[in-house]
Amino acid sequence: MKSHHQVALSVLTLCISQQLYAQNNVNETDALLDAQTSAELASSTVSNETPNVTLDTINVTAKARTGTALAQKISGMPAVTQVITENEIQIQATGDRTTGDILAQLIPSLGASSGSTSNYGTTMHGRPVQFLLNGVPLSSSRSLSRELNSIDPTQLERVEVLSGATSIYGAGAAGGLINLVTKSLVGYGPIRQTRVGVSSSRNFESDSLGYHVGQTLGYGGERVYGRLDVDYDNKGGKFDSEGNRISPDVNQTDQQDTESLSVNGSLGVELTDSQRLDLAVTYYKDEQDTDYGPDYGDGLAVLFGAKPSLKAIDGANVENEPYTTKTSINLNYNNDDIAGSSLSVTGYYRDEKGRFYPSAKSAATQAAEVWQANGLTDETTVNKLTSAAVFVTQSEADIEVMGLRAAMQTETEIAGKKTLFSYGADFERENSEQTYYGQDLNTFLASNGLTAQTNGLTYNGGPDTTIDKWGAFVNADVDITDKWHTSAGVRYQKLKSETDTFTPIYEKLLEEYFNSSAISGTSAAYGIDYQAGDVEKGSTDHDKTLFNLGTSYQLTPNDQIFANFSQGFTTADIQRALRDVRAGFVVNSDNVQPISINNYEFGWQGKHGDTAARLSGFYNESDKVVRFTDSYTVEVVDTDERVYGVEGSLSHDISDKWQVGGSVAYTRGQYDKDGDWLELDAVRLTPLKGTAFAQYNFDEGSNIRLQALAIGGDDKAFKDQQQDPDSSALPVTGYMTLDVLGQVNMTVGRVDYGVYNLLNKDYLTVYHQTTFGDLNRLPASGTTYGLSYTVDY
User: Which of 496, 510, 680, 703 is 20 to 30 A from 190, alpha carbon to alpha carbon?
Assistant: First the structure.
């Protein structure tokens, strides 16, 4: 069998030893940005040619599917706007690449992919990103950080990006918007496409083999049109650069040995020449089924401070494997002619469920506080007693969101100046709950952490929470001259939450601990009769008026400068922030406060001959900080914070066939700690990030690409935060990866191939370097291969 693998590798090596090519990964083609509070990014005809700056008015197609089609000029958008086209996604999506992997390569300011199921810590401009699917929010106040694990990337038509806070959208978009737009337009007549693919590790280990099958059916009629995409994916295990299987991610879960089903459906009806109704439905489910677990060491030594081996151990038996399900429904009504104005009304529903990997949880710190408060102060004795305060739990969350958005747009003239008014209102309700399911400790101990079975006990992962968001806005876009454009708006945002009475998880765990047979005798001797206490139901109510003001000026036919001020308004993850509080905590507007962000951007973009470039700088500030402490509880710190940086991109056509280019993004920030400005860590800020590429396009439409992604090392925050006892900052070691990928047009169909981490680099992603404990210091995948075939008929 090994000889066959060597032959396959030789053939693949021959295929990729063609001339290299470049395709710009920062496509600045015309985009439509929905100027409504729903932040639905409208669609436009997108070119697959070399990225360029287009300064003409965008023409809205009659069958835009992502919400209100509000025409604007790209030259009038005083913020960094990017459209990633279907062609760019296609070339990146071969093998087991996720949407997070693809976007990290193509969006300069977006954080590097985590390499796990989660996109936790993936920020833009040092702030959280609001992810949307067809204009419907994927990001909630309660986030499972799996937004980029929501749909198969082969089902994406494009990705629309707006970086920086925007008051047009309101709550939740402090770092910017990323709208994932699914395929929907089918033209006239039937459409059919079949997709098959395989992926493997460098050594073609049988455990690493994965495969993908997909089918598309669609039909476009005179008045009715529809499309259905179904993709099934079966991923194998991941192996590091030395050929060793990578241990499971017990904190956020991973995609090893996972089956997934992704469904994208759309149906549209043109009611009249000016009215249409569009329905978009997506469904995604993945579930892990693996025989491998983490190495906790002899006697679970890792849980008591020993360094983990990070080996994957065969023989795992988890009763309830990790999974993710997401369902979204988006119904949109558009009327392009209501007394000279256009109207869009969108109703949407989303339900998301997720289960995590079973993991041990220690209540030693909390138990020590109780012992000491009751007179036991000998440190050796306390440490011995609290070593028994270990529990095994498995978390499962359910988030349900529904909303209604309405917006109108009116074109008029004021003092002879062409003006576009956009105005509207929206409402969204989010219900979230999270439960920890207890696992049998004896079974877990006897198997050295490989077997997890429920014991019938449950714990609250924070209170059941309902969050209501109301918003209303008006925005005006004015062409002061044919070269000078300005935009100004105001939005009123109201956030209200209600939390149910709940018993904090550590209260329940302490009650079990002090009443266990191993401890109850000693606890009784010290007069400890611990009873879990509750946190009573509560509510918060906040509102904010937000402003935005921006301008752009056309210096030359090929050069544009812009500047923009906008405000963002968001809340901390209330349910997560309250998970670790103790009995008696009062939930009210004073104790759970929102965060306001002021954002400033300025920049230049241009295209001169065969060279296109963009350069922008940003600065944002807030009056509070949300962070994990060193014990991974969440806290909102009432202190000032500032983030600033620069990003740029460039592409150049060497010839009709050769293109080269790249991007760079530098972000830095600090928070105020007792009068000193301490550096923010890499969980919040993406370290220095750069990309580069070279592409060659063949006459028959085939192409080949070499691309690099580099992350700079940084230990400033780690050194700075030694002054902060609650710090969790860790140093980052830089790394660079190379990929070769391309497409070959066949007589029938198209072959896509990819070789990722071409040089078999041994490294850890930023996420695995900086989050959670030593058990999360997992290496990234070594060289992996992907090969797929797509045919339209």
Answer: 703
pLDDT, mean of residues 529-542: 94
CB-CB contact of 719 with 709 (8 Å): no
pTM, to two decimals: 0.87
Angle at Cα 132 formed by Cα 128 and Cα 133, nearest 5°?
150
- CB burial of 330-357 (b: ≥16 within 10 Å; e: otherwise) equals bebebbbeeeeebbbbbebebbbbbbbb
How many whole angstroms separate alpha carbon 129 and alpha carbon 434? 22
Backbone φ and ψ for 253, nearest 5 degrees, come out as 70, 165
Q: Over the Cα atoms of the chain, what is R_g?
A: 27
| 348 vs 282: CA distance, rounded Å | 12
Pair 658, 695: CB distance under 8 Å: yes
pLDDT at 452 over 60: yes
For 319, other C-beta atoms within 10 Å of its C-beta total 14
Whether residue 583 contacts residue 534, with contact meaning beta carbons closer than 8 Å, is answered with yes
What is the tens place of the pLDDT at every residue in 98-113?
A: 999 999 999 998 999 9
Residues in a beta bridge with 259: 234, 287
What digits encode the pLDDT tens for the residues 33-87? Answer: 333 333 333 333 333 333 333 333 323 333 434 433 333 433 345 566 788 999 9
Determine the longest span between alpha carbons in the chain, in angstroms.
86
Six token digits for residue 155: 């089902």
